[in-house]
Amino acid sequence: MIFHELDAFIRIRQDNLTSDLHRETVRATTILVTSIPKNFLDVKTLRQVFSVFPGGVKNVFLNRDCSDLLEMVQERDSIAHKLEGAETELIVTANKLHRKEVAKKIKKQKKEGDGGTIEPADGQIQLGETESLVDRYVSEKKRPTYRIPLAKWMPSLPLIGKKVSLHFHEGLFLTKAGRHS
């Protein structure tokens, strides 16, 4: 049974790979060659080496040095990790402050003799036009911050550099870095 299915799959695959529609696609006419010695890393030499292929060589593309891009990707990932941690910290802080607010309301109602129950909200929180949910629960002083390093190659150090909100500063950088990658 398995042998029969494998044989049918191979036959269908070969028919597809040798069809006129597939033969003209870029996938069918492109090869990736890795680990090329340095003395072969120029377009003219590679054309000569691969000229033995039927149809010849149309284009040769050489991979460039991607170490700068790798550093940018690592920096972006580091910033994304910081932002995720800050977001979690912000949510935990907001939740804690919200629970304290509810507990105060319950305590106040118990003192007034209302029975200590609070009307549950219908899931909608009423905010002013300029007020955000973060502003309502977490003050600017309690939000996650960090210091901008004096130079790009330096790490951020305590008490040195401008202190900024992690969400605002890193969020802007992450947006810019995301456009480049």
What characteristics describe this protein?
181 residues; mainly alpha; 6 helices; 2 strands; elongated
Overall 3D shape: elongated
Question: What is the number of beta strands?
Answer: 2
Structural class: mainly alpha
- Largest sheet data: 2 strands, antiparallel
Mean pLDDT: 77
Outline the structure in words:
With 181 residues, this protein is mainly α. The protein has two domains: 2-52, no CATH class; 67-112 and 133-180, no CATH class. The chain is built from six helices and two strands. Strands 1-2 form a two-stranded antiparallel ribbon. The longest helix has 46 residues, at 67-112. The protein is elongated and about 90 Å long.
In terms of topology, how is this protein built?
Elements lengths: L1 H16 L2 H4 L19 H7 L17 H46 L20 H5 L7 E3 L15 E3 H15 L1
Antiparallel strand pairs: 1-2
Helix pairs in contact: 4-6
